[in-house]
Write a structure and sequence with these properties.
This protein has about 150 residues and is an all-alpha fold. The protein is built from 6 helices and no strands. The N and C termini lie far apart (about 40 Å). The mean pLDDT is about 85.
């Protein structure tokens, strides 16, 4: 008996959104492994920038995995919500990042872009978080050595 899935799946995410999440999460985790297996490559300072960019992309993949584009009307309320949480609780966890994802997703992606020297200003309005995530991932992927295939 074949399983049937709704067009909108878990938490309102479409099957396409979930496929993007799993694929992109696998890509960034493989890149994190490559960084781990090549410590201090190519030099300590640059490697640290790569690790920071990779961590930011790993975190962002969970925040921009649905294709919904966040407009500026979402950014300020999410930033305010996150700021209030820091002020009142002095801590931020992943659930807080997820709740304020319009702002935090952009923050992590921009952090990766800045670390890779790809961004000097805030996000252009014509690009989605997914498109910027992919841009940063592709750049970082090109800079980190590939793993050797086992024979």
């Amino acid at each position: 008996m074949a399983l049937k899935f709704d067009k909108k799946s878990v938490e309102g995410q479409s099957p396409e959104d979930l496929k993007w999440l799993v694929h992109s999460r696998n890509e960034i985790q493989e890149l994190l492994l490559r960084l781990d297996l090549h410590p201090n490559y190519p030099d300590g300072r640059e490697w640290q920038l790569f690790v920071g960019a990779a961590f930011s992309l790993w975190r962002a993949v969970f925040l921009c995995h649905d294709a919904q584009e966040f407009s500026r009307r979402h950014l300020e309320p999410d930033a305010k919500k996150l700021l209030r949480r820091v002020v009142t609780r002095n801590t931020i966890g992943f659930a807080d990042d997820l709740e304020a994802r319009a702002w935090t997703g952009g923050y992590y992606i921009n952090n990766a872009l800045f670390r890779l020297g790809m961004r000097t200003v805030a996000r252009p309005p014509h690009k989605t978080q997914r498109a910027l995530w992919k841009e940063a991932f592709d750049k970082l992927d090109s800079l980190v050595p590939k793993l050797k295939k086992d024979n």
